Amino acid sequence: MSLYTATAFASAGRNGQARSDDGLLDLSLTYPKALGGSGTGTNPEQLFAAGYAACFSNAILYVAKEQGVALTEAPVTGQVSLLPQPVGFALGVSLAVELALPQAEAEALVATAHQVCPYSNAVRNNIDVAIDVKGVA
User: Fold this and answer.
1) Where are the beta strands (DSSP E) in the chain?
2) Cα(11)–Cα(28) distance, rounded to whole angstroms?
3) Of 30, 69, 125, 132, which cross-links 64 as Cys (Cβ 3.0–4.6 Å)?
4) How does pLDDT run across 37-46, given as a tens digit for each residue?
5) Handedness of CA 64, 24, 7, 126 (dihedral sign)
6) Beta strand 89-102 pairing with 128-136
């Protein structure tokens, strides 16, 4: 049983349009300037980075609540890299997390969040994910 299903449509690949079935997401897609494109629209890597960052932030807040840790925000910056490989391409992910918690507590919370985050579970053993955690001194 699904808790929620999102539906989106894309046309013409990286030089097209993407939209959700409810119309709340409606974007122009273009190649980034770094890949010879105009850079005037978004691209799949940016969308994945934003989705992963939001989902991971929520996973941290969920785990904090479950553990009784008082945390009202969990800033996460996501980076998704397009990487060459012998056949086709691959993705690499970096997540930078800053929490208003002591370093050891922040690291433990993030490690647990990495086990419950749907994005982390989806990419585990397929995409390298580097996580940098910064707590307070």
Assistant:
1) 8-11, 17-20, 26-28, 76-84, 89-102, 128-136
2) 10
3) 69
4) 999 999 999 9
5) negative
6) parallel
Q: Residue ranges of the alpha helices (H) in 67-117?
A: 103-116
Q: What are phi and psi of 70, to 5 degrees?
A: -75, 105
Q: What sign has the CA pseudo-torsion 49, 1, 69, 115?
A: negative
Put simply, whether the predicted model's pTM sits higher than 0.70 gets the answer yes
The tens digit of pLDDT for each residue in 99-137 reads: 999 999 999 999 999 999 999 999 999 999 999 999 996
b/e per residue 92-126 (b: at least 16 CB within 10 A): ebebebbbebeeebbbbbbebbbeebebbeebeee
Quickly count: other Cβ atoms within 10 Å of residue 38's Cβ: 11
Cβ–Cβ under 8 Å, residues 93 and 129: yes
- What the block records as the tokens of 128 is 């390298």
CB of 80 closer than 8 Å to CB of 93: yes
| Mean pLDDT value across the chain | 97
